[in-house]
Amino acid sequence: MARHSIIAERPGRDKPKPLLRGLPPVLAPNSRLIVLGSFPGQASLAAQQYYAHPRNQFWPILAALWNVPLPALPYPERLQVLRERGLALWDVYAACRREGSLDSAIEHAELNDLAGLRQAAPQLQAVAHNGGESARCMRITGALGWPVHKLPSTSPANASWSFERKLAAWRDVFQQHGLP
Q1: Which pLDDT score, from 0 to 100, does residue 13 have?
Q2: What is the pLDDT of residue 14?
Q3: 60 contacts: CB under 8 Å, gap ≥ 6
Q4: Model confidence at 3, in pLDDT bands (50, 70, 90)?
Q5: Cβ neighbour number for residue 50 with a 10 Å cutoff
Q6: Angle between the 75-85 and 58-66 helix axes, to the nearest 10 degrees?
Q7: In whole angstroms, how far apart are CA 1 and each of 4, 6, 7, 8, 25?
Q8: Full-model pTM
Q9: Would the pLDDT of 9 be above 80?
Q10: Could you confirm whether 56 is annotated as catalytic?
Q11: What is the mean pLDDT of the chain?
């Protein structure tokens, strides 16, 4: 008689979560400020676009700062505007296991090569962490020798901050680093 694993056949047993891979950095040689998120949510991974969730306020905040209709532009054009203005994007985590999109569900995270930013973006002057999970790596980014800022998350999960309050915080950091 064949033996079967009872544990493997139990209904509802947690299956291992797949390893998710993040998005490549958005950099230009003239990048002066990099915004680091934690890891792309499900909508961003599916679209292969940063901040693709329709309620994420990243693109509307930049649109308000720069008076450019970024949310209405095709994604490649949005990235071109960022590059032209000296803004880079990436995430602190290269890969992780996560169910859903919440940062609190991130498990077994692998860091991106943040030290490699010096070579990839030689004019970089500062790092801004978009939200608390990303900011957990401030010790690492601070060791790179640039000023490091913690910005309020643009995620729809950060409902305790109004759009206006987030915009003011982001404006302050962008002005400090000469992003028009």
Answers
A1: 53
A2: 62
A3: 70, 71, 163
A4: very low
A5: 24
A6: 50
A7: 10, 15, 18, 18, 55
A8: 0.89
A9: no
A10: yes
A11: 91
Token pair of 77 as six digits: 């054009």
Please pick, among 56, 67, 112, 130, the residue that the annotation labels catalytic: 56
CA distance 61 to 167: 6
Of the CA atoms within 13 Å of residue 166, those in its CB half-sphere come to 21
| CA-based nearest residue to 38, from 28, 23, 54 | 23
pLDDT value at position 133?
94
> Which domains are seen in the chain, by residue range?
19-176 (3.40.470.10)
Q: In sequence order, which ranges of the chain are alpha helices (DSSP H)? A: 6-9, 42-47, 58-66, 75-85, 117-120, 132-135, 138-142, 163-176
For residue 40, give both structure tokens.
């792309």
What counts of helices (H) and strands (E) characterise the chain? 8, 7
Residue 15 pLDDT greater than 80, yes or no: no
